[in-house]
């Protein structure tokens, strides 16, 4: 059974114009699902929409929406006007790299809104409808930074831990209802967002940088089978060492030291 047969006709990807979000949308389109693409910039969304429509003969709807708005979920719903969403991927995230104290309270709360409050609202809204139908799926993007304190990524890391725990909890609550939930925990992935940060290699415990398509492929293989997963063998190994072998203190120190070196802080 493919994803369309299992969950239904339409997938929504929030944060879809490039990187991992575009890879998710492409993978879902290849399964024959109609797609709702969401991001702030219309042009890249439309380019992707044209490509997917031509290649897979599906319907694609583009919605421009700033997911940091407190009414983002209502705005999306007004545009969709009750249309059924069978599978939802919340991929968008805002990350500030640098000392916590150098960033404004406004920026921190904007990150909390994009990374936590909007996915929470969207999961509540679309999850309820999926439960009523007895089928559906939710993917929340998380990060290896969310496994322990991550100096210089503090707010981002904390929001990613939130998504991990939310997805795993809902996986448990909904596992017999026909609605699958998974936390997709990515390590470094070669997206425009990642490349724009110009990270330097740190040498220690740095696994291979994955392609966005690898992340999306692996996620749909694991969806319905487990509450969360880490992308790629190298990331799983690094995580095993950090979480199971090193002390918590050591893991927090390594994470902070690596980020400091990567971004020359
Ligand atoms: N790349 C990595 O190395 C890495 C590692 C671990 C985890 N992750 C996670 O994977 C996910 C995707 O990462 P990525 O590197 O692919 O991100 P990205 O390249 O920065 O792309 C993010 C997508 O979200 C959209 N977006 C960002 N802010 C938005 C907002 N306020 N409202 C609406 N749309 C917004 C962007 O389009 P617009 O700019 O047009 O809005 C873009 O389509 C994130 O959740 C991230 O935490 C990534």
Commentary on this structure:
51% of the residues lie in helices and 15% in strands. The chain has a 7-stranded parallel sheet, with helices on both faces. The protein contains 10 helices and 7 strands. The model has no long low-confidence stretch (mean pLDDT 97). The chain has a single domain, classed as NAD(P)-binding Rossmann-like Domain (Rossmann fold), CATH 3.40.50. Strand 5 (136-143), helix 6 and strand 6 (179-186) form a beta-alpha-beta unit. It is α/β, with parallel strands linked by helices and 265 residues long. It has helices at 3-7, 19-30, 42-56, 72-80, 105-133, 154-174, 192-195, 212-222, 233-245, 248-262; strands at residues 10-14, 34-39, 60-64, 87-90, 136-143, 179-186, 228-230. Bound molecules: NADP nicotinamide-adenine-dinucleotide phosphate (NAP). NADP nicotinamide-adenine-dinucleotide phosphate binds next to helix 2, strand 5 and helix 7.
Write a brief structural summary.
The protein contains 10 helices and 7 strands. It is of the alpha/beta class and 265 residues long.
Architecture (CATH level 2) name: 3-Layer(aba) Sandwich
Question: Which ligands does the model contain, each kind named once?
Answer: NADP nicotinamide-adenine-dinucleotide phosphate
Q: Give helix and strand order, one letter per element, not per position.
A: HEHEHEHEHEHEHHEHH
Strand order of the largest sheet: 3-2-1-4-5-6-7
Average predicted confidence as pLDDT:
97
Gross morphology: globular
Number of strands: 7
Cα(first) to Cα(last) distance is: 49 Å
Strand content: 5-15%
Determine the fraction of residues in helical runs and give it as a percent range: 40-55%
What are the low-pLDDT stretches, counting only 5+ consecutive residues below 50?
Answer: none
- Reading off the top of the CATH hierarchy, the class is best stated as Alpha Beta
């Amino acid at each position: 059974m493919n994803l369309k047969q299992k969950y239904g006709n339409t997938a929504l990807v929030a944060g879809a114009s490039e990187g991992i979000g575009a890879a998710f949308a492409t993978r879902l389109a290849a399964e024959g699902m109609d797609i709702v693409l969401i991001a702030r910039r219309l042009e890249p969304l439309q380019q992707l929409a044209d490509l997917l429509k031509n290649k897979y003969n599906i319907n694609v709807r583009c919605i421009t929406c700033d997911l940091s708005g407190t009414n983002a979920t209502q705005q999306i719903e007004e545009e969709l006007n009750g249309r059924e969403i069978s599978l939802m991927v919340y991929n968008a995230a805002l990350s500030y790299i640098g000392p916590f104290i150098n960033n404004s309270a406004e920026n921190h709360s904007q990150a909390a809104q994009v990374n936590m409050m909007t996915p929470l609202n969207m999961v509540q809204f679309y999850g309820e409808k999926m439960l009523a139908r007895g089928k559906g799926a939710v993917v929340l993007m998380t990060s290896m930074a969310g496994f322990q304190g991550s100096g210089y990524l503090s707010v981002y890391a904390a929001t990613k831990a939130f998504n991990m725990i939310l997805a795993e909890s809902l996986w448990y609550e909904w596992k017999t209802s026909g609605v699958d939930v998974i936390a997709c925990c990515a390590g470094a992935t070669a997206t425009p967002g990642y490349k724009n940060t110009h990270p330097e290699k740190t040498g220690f415990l740095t696994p291979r940088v994955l392609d966005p398509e690898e992340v999306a492929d692996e996620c749909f293989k694991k969806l319905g089978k487990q509450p969360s997963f880490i992308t790629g063998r190298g990331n799983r190994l690094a995580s095993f060492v950090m979480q199971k072998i090193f002390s918590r203190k050591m893991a927090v120190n390594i994470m902070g030291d690596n980020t400091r070196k990567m971004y020359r802080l």
